[in-house]
Design brief:
Order of helices and strands: HEEEEEEEEEEHHE
Oligomer: single chain
Number of strands: 11
Helix content: 10-25%
Structural class: alpha+beta
Largest sheet: 6 strands, mixed
Shape: flat
Number of helices: 3
């Protein structure tokens, strides 16, 4: 075999190795609930260790952590409860997390992103204005009613706020068991600072006498409603 052919074969082999190594691995068993034993960890995983299959029970696949609303007595008048495989064993290796967002009147979840997950939000109660900002500085936002669903693409800044006059509740599914969160306000200023108020005011403008939210008014952003 000539050197030229050897290089070609090696390149093809490397390509297939790269594709296979970058792909997510499928489960080799039906389920892999998180092991919650308190023993000291000596081996570290990209994820969480599994329970012994003989000890898996139905309760591993149920959680009640989202049954009750979060505490909205704070500056943003909102609360988000995220449940991952660390709290809900049955999620382990499935690439899923779930969350509940409670928005009091005038409540808001400030712009943030999930570096490892897209998010699909379902409005269970009330009215919610939700949107995201893409890499071209375009803002996409919609008014959501009960039963509506909105998708936040992976890694993009997104936000939501109560667009009505009563408590709003939304549930989300994220396609990672450890989605992560990056908040621009956490990194830049305190929640009770004037800077946050300016950000909120610019991001969303309200129209008096209407139970809706109008165009995003952030300087430098295009608006897609």
């Amino acid at each position: 075999m000539t050197n030229h052919h050897t290089i070609i074969v090696s390149s093809i082999a490397f390509f297939f190795w790269f594709v296979i190594s970058m792909a997510d691995f499928d489960n080799l068993q039906d389920a892999c609930p998180t092991s919650t034993t308190e023993q000291q960890q000596t081996v570290f995983f990209n994820g969480l260790p599994c329970k012994n299959p003989t000890t898996i029970i139905a309760s591993d696949f149920k959680t009640s952590k989202l049954n009750h609303g979060g505490d909205t007595e704070n500056f943003l008048r909102s609360a988000t409860t995220v449940v991952t495989a660390a709290d809900f064993p049955g999620l382990n290796t499935l690439g899923l997390s779930i969350s509940r967002t409670d928005l009091d009147v005038n409540g808001m979840v400030v712009p943030h992103s999930h570096p490892r997950a897209s998010e699909m939000m379902f409005v269970w109660r009330g009215s919610v204005r939700a949107g995201f900002i893409d890499t071209e500085k375009k803002v996409f936002q919609k008014l959501l009613k009960e039963g509506d669903v909105f998708v936040f693409p992976r890694g993009l800044l997104h936000f939501c706020l109560n667009a009505g006059y009563e408590l709003a509740v939304a549930f989300s599914v994220l396609n990672s068991q450890n989605p992560g969160v990056v908040s621009i306000t956490d990194a830049m200023f305190e929640f009770d600072s004037d800077a946050v108020k300016v950000l909120m005011g610019r991001l969303i403008s309200t129209t008096p006498g209407m139970n809706t939210m109008q165009n995003v008014t952030s300087h430098g952003f295009d608006h897609h409603l």
